[in-house]
Amino acid sequence: MPMPRCPRCGEDERLVGERSGDTITVRCEVCDAVWDRDPTHRCGLCGSDVLIHTPKPLWEKGRGDQRTPAGRIDAYLCVTCGGRDVTSSDPRPAED
User: Fold this and answer.
1) How crowded is the C-beta side of 77, counted as CA atoms within 13 Å?
2) CA-to-CA distance for 85 and 87, rounded, in angstroms?
3) Which residues contact 17 (CB under 8 A, 6 or more apart)?
4) Residue 61: strand pairing partners
5) Of 3, 9, 72, whose CA–CA distance to 44 is shortest?
6) Fewer Cβ atoms within 10 Å of its own Cβ: the N or the C terminal residue of the chain?
7) How far is CA 95 from CA 2, 27, 65, 73, 88, in A?
8) Which tens digit of pLDDT belongs to each residue from 39-91?
9) Residue 10 φ/ψ region, left for φ over 0, alpha for ψ in the -120 to 50 degree band, beta for the rest
10) 42's torsion region: left (phi>0), alpha (psi -120 to 50) or beta?
């Protein structure tokens, strides 16, 4: 999910949020604007919200030829345009 920005002044660091159920209310500490943030994941390529969650493992080099799982990355595929890792800062279009 992209980082939120204040719709009034564009600030992206001095933001304070509170969650109430499924709603996230954000307040800008610079200009005191208040708005509700949509927590829905959206495709960074086409804007669709029809995504498939595809967690990917992070691997570290283990002993010898072995690899050791070190965590995971939550990646999303877009059903609409076929994009890969579409909620990251670098979404990739579908491979032809």
Assistant:
1) 8
2) 6
3) 4, 24, 25, 26, 27, 37
4) 67
5) 3
6) C
7) 23, 40, 30, 20, 17
8) 788 898 998 999 999 998 888 887 888 888 889 888 899 999 999 988 887 88
9) left
10) beta
pLDDT at 14 over 80: yes
Cα maximum dimension of the chain: 55
Read off the DSSP letter of residue 72: E
Query: Whole-angstrom Cα distance, residue 86 to residue 43?
Result: 5
Q: How far apart are CA 22 and CA 20, in angstroms?
A: 6
Quote the tokens at residue 35. 């708005």
Bridge partners of 75, per DSSP, are 54
